Amino acid sequence: MKLLLFDIDGTLLHSGGAGKRAMNKAFTEIFGIQNAFKNISMAGMTDPGIIKEALDKHHLPWNPDKVELFKHRYFQQLRIEIEFPNPRKHIKPGIPELLAYLNKDPRFWLGLLTGNWQEGARIKLSHFGLNRYFKFGAFGDDSSDRNKLLPFALKRFEALNTHSIDLNNVYVIGDTPLDIQCAQPYGAKTIGIATGGHSLDELRQEAPDYVFSDLSDLHSFLKIFEDDGA
């Protein structure tokens, strides 16, 4: 059995900037500052890490009550923003075919490892018809530190299966160096996908186990698991 943990933004889909627009609008409502996330990189970051960076940038304290209000308004805004037509909004190449195949193959379990808060993750995935493939995962709700997320996904897998899984059979799939880095200390395998803001060469510098330009070649992707004995 193989456990495949997917990142969302840049790996499975591009929201057309809906997430950033929703965050900016929510931040303006709660904290009174417009375009608060300008020049803040979101790639590979967790949602709580992103808002912490925005608060620090604007010299605002971390107020748990206000952050909860921000989250509530962010989810409301995201549901609106994700529906707007946008030429940049798309599912990444090969993803629908890949997930449909893996979902039917009993050798594979699909999960998420994402910095999105879970509700935001589900909003994005549902819009693109992908939510049904992912019963569990690890999210920004679990930790603001991406490097601490993998154990949460493993515990939820174990709860569903009543047994553990060898980390040699766990694959973290993402489009940023941070996706690769968060898995390596645990001994999980890593698959870099150059469909976000990082090139193949940039991903290779992190020494992932595998790297692809995109996931449009189903045969090449599945060959990983043939070589690993799936």
List its salient traits.
2 domains, alpha/beta, two-stranded antiparallel sheet, DNA polymerase, domain 1, 9 helices, 13% strand, six-stranded parallel β-sheet, 230 residues, Rossmann fold
Please explain how this structure is put together.
This protein is of the alpha/beta class and 230 residues long. The protein has 2 domains: 2-15 and 90-227, Rossmann fold, CATH 3.40.50.1000; 18-81, DNA polymerase, domain 1 (Orthogonal Bundle), CATH 1.10.150. Helices cover 41% and strands 13% of the residues. It has 9 helices and 8 strands. It has helices spanning 18-31, 47-57, 64-81, 95-104, 118-127, 150-161, 177-181, 200-204, 218-227, and strands at 2-6, 13-14, 90-91, 108-113, 137-138, 170-174, 189-193, 210-212. A 6-stranded parallel sheet has the order 5-4-1-6-7-8, sandwiched between helices. A two-stranded antiparallel ribbon has the order 2-3. Helix 7 links the parallel strand 6 (170-174) and strand 7. Helix 1 packs across helix 3 (64-81) and helix 3 (64-81) runs parallel beside helix 5 (118-127). It is globular.
What does this entry show, briefly?
The protein is an alpha/beta fold and 230 residues long. It contains nine helices and eight strands.
